[in-house]
Amino acid sequence: MRRWINEIPNNGLIRYKHLFNRDRVLVTSPKGLAEVLTTKSYDFVKPDFMRIGIGQILGVGVLLAEGDEHKMQRKGLMPAFNFRHIKELYPIFWSKSVEMVQGIQASLPANTPWSLEVGEWASRATLDIIGVAGMGQDFNSIANPDTELN
Questions:
Q1: pTM (2 decimals)?
Q2: At what angle do helices 118-130 and 90-107 cross, to 10 degrees?
Q3: pLDDT for 7-18, tens place per residue?
Q4: Cβ neighbours for 77, distance < 8 A, ≥ 6 positions apart
Q5: Is the dihedral of CA 89, 91, 96, 97 positive or negative?
């Protein structure tokens, strides 16, 4: 799809056919993406098959809800994301980031070339941050990658 963006002439949108000949639209411009995700997000609904299929597995949370249901869920979550609350969590973010960097450094071989899969470390750090910040429970997944939650 990246190649399409560069090779197919477009004005911010590319329409194409997907599985079972269903229409899809690829947003290619920052302005269009901003409209879809923020300024006019309620005008763009998720496809029914996606909302229903994923909703049966994950439940219809804030990511899958539409319209008034989404507004209600979002309003309920907003206090957790206000600046003052997030600012109070900085020490947790910092300490878990330091712990992650120390874990990465300890896992690297000495005096040999190496490569690193950061995604796994980031997932473990995120799990620990959510546990401490949201539940008051340190899952210790940075130090112990073999826990049940990883």
A1: 0.58
A2: 150
A3: 888 888 999 998
A4: 62
A5: positive
